TrEMBL record:
The protein's name in its UniProt record: Protein suppressor of k(+) transport growth defect 1
InterPro entries: AAA+_ATPase, ATPase_AAA_core, MIT_dom_sf, MT-severing_AAA_ATPase, P-loop_NTPase, Spast_Vps4_C
PANTHER family: AAA DOMAIN-CONTAINING, PROTEIN SUPPRESSOR OF K(+) TRANSPORT GROWTH DEFECT 1
Protease is among the record's keywords: no
Gene (name only): SKD1_15
GO MF annotations in UniProt: ATP binding; ATP hydrolysis activity
A UniProt-annotated Pfam family: AAA
Keywords of the record: ATP-binding, Nucleotide-binding
Keyword ATP-binding: yes
GO biological process: endosomal transport; vacuole organization
AAA+ ATPase domain boundaries: 130-266
Length: 360
């Protein structure tokens, strides 16, 4: 059996990045993307096995720029390749907690659950154990998935992101096997984070009309595996997200040590979101303009704000405003853009938070 060292893994990653850059400059974007993805596979494995924190940090940073480029290639040229969402990612994500506007209670709870046990393991011994399962619930577009990704990036944990489509199989017994393999891989790769998006689609309330035998088996397997994670000392954290918390099975809800409400962004958070999403795009917006935009978007989610920024100018007059007074263009866009979360939706989440929530 051939043993590959961390140095060799790093060398293979760097070699494929260099080849990708050559193809990228030559305009061979599909080939460049494939090489970037191959490089990140080696890089992820290297980062998992590298024991030197300084080297891990330095090399992770060196790969982030190439990761951004690959992401742009995939979006701009509609390229297809290995889906990163279905693979373990060892801290190569771009999400950072500092990019999250507001949500201080959410961030604090996640830091306590994921970062403190890694940085201060001596405090979590005996009966004092870190939280092992956290449910993030709230309206769609508020940043639940981004928060999970950011925590994985901050901790350098191996990140397993799954949805119902990754688990459900038409073959008898295959779905439960997928769940079992997922948790075993997470244990082997610890410290790790399992993120289950839209968990209500996998673990809806028992007895629903649309629940079949396969759904019950998946739910039972998840309950068993999560109970195992909560009872052992393996450094595995389960994060799950839902937009419909009342649809979640009661037994599954009880498996979560923490149930955190992720609300719509407040005034300061909306201002921060505008700044983050506009980023280094050339603009002439002032601090006063950003404050004005934040006030105009009361009731908007983070994804609503992102959509507003992405809206193209419709007319020549709009284009002229984009070049001169961009705040006027945003005002016009906001006049025809409505929030996607209704007051009725918010009331449901607030009621669930009052009945079952811990933070937020």
């Amino acid at each position: 059996m051939t043993t590959v060292t961390t140095g060799q893994l790093l060398e293979l990653a760097e070699k494929n990045v260099k080849l990708a850059v050559v193809e990228d400059k030559a305009g061979q974007f599909e080939e460049a993307y494939k090489l970037y993805m191959k490089a990140f596979e080696y890089a992820g494995t290297y980062l998992f096995y590298e024991n030197n924190p300084w080297l891990k940090k330095q090399n992770r940073q060196s790969f982030l720029g190439h990761y951004r480029r690959a992401t742009k290639l995939r979006g701009r040229h509609h390229l297809h390749g290995p889906s990163l969402s279905n693979e373990a990612k060892s801290g190569l994500g771009l999400a950072k907690l500092s990019d999250v506007g507001g949500l201080e209670a959410c961030k604090e709870a996640l830091v306590e659950a994921a970062i403190l046990p890694i940085e201060n393991p001596q405090f979590f011994t005996g009966k004092r154990q870190p939280w092992k399962a956290i449910l993030l619930y709230g309206p769609p577009g508020t940043g639940k998935t981004y928060l999970a990704n950011a925590i994985a990036t901050e901790t350098g944990s191996t990140f397993f992101s799954v949805s119902a489509s990754d688990v459900v199989s038409k073959w008898m017994g295959e779905s439960e096997k997928q769940v079992s393999i997922l948790f075993q891989r997470a244990r082997d790769a610890a410290p790790s984070i399992i993120f289950i998006d839209e968990i209500d689609s996998l673990c809806g309330s028992r007895g629903e009309n649309n629940e079949n035998e396969a759904s019950r088996r998946i739910k039972t397997e998840l309950l068993v595996r999560m109970q195992g994670v909560c009872n052992d000392e393996t450094n595995v954290l389960v994060l799950a997200a839902t937009n419909t918390p009342y649809a979640l099975d009661q037994a599954m809800r009880r498996r979560f040590d923490k149930r955190i409400y992720v609300p719509l962004p407040d005034l300061k958070a909306r201002e921060h979101i505008f700044k983050v999403h506009i980023g280094d795009t050339p603009h002439n917006l002032t601090e006063t303009d950003f404050e004005h935009l934040a006030r105009r978007t009361q009731g908007f989610s983070g994804s609503d704000i992102f959509y507003c920024i992405q809206l193209p100018p419709n007319t020549r007059a709009d284009f002229d405003k984009m070049l001169s007074r961009q705040s006027q263009l945003f005002d016009k866009m906001l006049s025809r853009q409505k929030p996607t979360v209704s007051e009725a939706d918010l009331e449901v989440h607030k009621r669930f938070n009052k009945e079952f929530g811990n933070e937020g």
